[in-house]
Amino acid sequence: MKNGISAVLIVKNEEKVLDRCLRSLAGCDEIAILDTGSTDRTLEIARAHTSVVAVSPPIEPFHFAEARNRAERLATQDWVLTIDADEILEEGAMSALRRTVRTRPQSLGFRVLFKLSDQDGQNESSLMKLKVYRRGFWTWAFRVHEQLFPLGEGQIHDIADASMRHLPDPDKEHRRRQNLELLKLSVEEDPGYLRNWRQLGMEEILLGRHEEAIPHLRRYLEGKGIDPLDRSETRVHIARAIAKRPGGLEEALSEFDQATLEAPDRREPHVYKALALVNVARLDDAIVEVRRCLAIPVEKKPNFHLNVESIWNGSFPGEILEFCEKEIHAAKMRFYAGERPTG
Fold first, then answer.
1. In this structure, are residues 3 and 39 in contact, taking their beta carbons and an 8 Å threshold?
2. pLDDT over 60 at 153, yes or no
3. I need a surface site. Which of 4, 53, 75, 242 has the fewest CB within 10 A?
């Protein structure tokens, strides 16, 4: 038995980020890379770091799970570290992984601390994510936003001192459009895979197609067993999309309230409701909403990877509050100076 770790990647046109990723894997027993059709320097960069590089036969339309299963067959070690080109293993993580697979050899997999942020690199959040698993005991499924499924029973443990970070290339427009088409195909193939309905809605939002996103997000909410925090977050996205409609504010405010009912200890629905009110100059109402947000104690912060740090540390609500108070004060000064509204 080879109780080592193989880092396994699928790549395509990742020359901007691949070298950074592979350098972070120093000390790994093996790096195995499957290229799925690069036309840039991706293959050159990959071969500078490892000899285990293969080019996949075409997969049309593309199927991420199939590509990952093919890539895993390149690995020879007992453990697979699955990582994307726009992710890095942070300092000290490899040592923690080695120590853990050595001391827990019968485990089925391990979750590491996975750090991510929004598309602008702001609002960092984190979650424990399954990124290391025993080779041959799992399979990937689903065309896009693929998931790992165990082939047997076994324990999965957290490695709190091993972390990875997502550092995406800001230019994701082409990838988003590809994902959108694959998600449309995926929900036709497997409408019961609820996660893809939500992801389809989110891809529409990222492309600025808010109205198109709403029915997909509502379809996700029709599912059973969805975590209340996920339901709350999804309702916030629906509300923000509706608020962009002419005359859609009141319906949007109702959705924000539903988001709060789903998860009463979340601050985020209050903040985004306040922003919607600011956009229509209902500043007094926005202030009320911000104060409701700040009334939720930080100690009640849910364990949720989509928490927005700037909301929970008070800086973002504080900015909204300051803006509203300044605008109201300025309006009063204009009024008392004789600048009476007309009409």
1. no
2. yes
3. 4
DSSP E strands, the chain: 5-11, 30-35, 52-55, 79-82, 87-89, 109-116, 125-134, 138-141, 147-150, 156-166
Residue keyed to tokens 């590509």: 67
- 185, 325: one domain: yes
Q: How many domains does the chain have?
A: 2
- The answer on 187 and 140 residing in a single domain is no
Which structure tokens are listed for 117? 């942020």
The C-alpha atoms of residue 290 and residue 319 are separated, in whole angstroms, by 10
Which tokens belong to 126? 């984190």
Could you list the residue range(s) of the whole structural domain that residue 24 is in?
A: 5-166
| pLDDT value for 207 | 87
201 in Cβ contact with 184 (< 8 Å):
no
State pLDDT tens for residues 229-286: 999 999 999 999 999 999 999 999 999 999 999 999 999 999 999 999 999 999 999 9
Contact 117, 166 (CB under 8 A): yes
- For 133, 212, 216, 292, 308, the CA distances from 198, given in Å and listed in that order, are 26, 12, 6, 28, 19
* Residue 97 domain flag: yes
